Amino acid sequence: MQFLTTDLCDTHPDLVRVVEPLFTNYGGKVCFGGEIVTIKCHEDNSLVKENASKPGQGKVLVVDGGGSMRRALLGDMIAASALRNGWEGCIIYGCIRDIDAIRVLELGVQALGVMPLRTEKRGIGELDVPVTFGGVTFQPGEFVYADNNGIIVSAEPLITPNGG
Hints:
By secondary structure, the protein is an alpha/beta fold. It is built from 4 helices and 12 strands.
């Protein structure tokens, strides 16, 4: 999947919602997009780990960690699991860790920052609920596109899986 979010914004100005520029691109796949699957959690990545181990072809895991900078919601093992299960990428409104290992994975990963502390697994969180951060509401089943220029969201697909 190849695209530029800038081109998608120019081509579909009435269809896109642009996320505020809060995120850094950490993954080995710098251009990624797909159907949104949401998780809302705070300093507990139990649902992130669980869902990364499920099939995710054509999907992006959007995790609302409340912007916490105190714990990492994604590390190399969960990222590798997501890649094995076909996920296009993860957008983490919070921190990640193990960035040297994540940088070489063919997985899109954007996050607010890096924190070496892992979360405690308490099994707390919500799956497939609307989440809002960066000035945009992410609805499960909508579409997200991310690259080095930013992150955009659309209620309908803006490109086909083969990039057309």
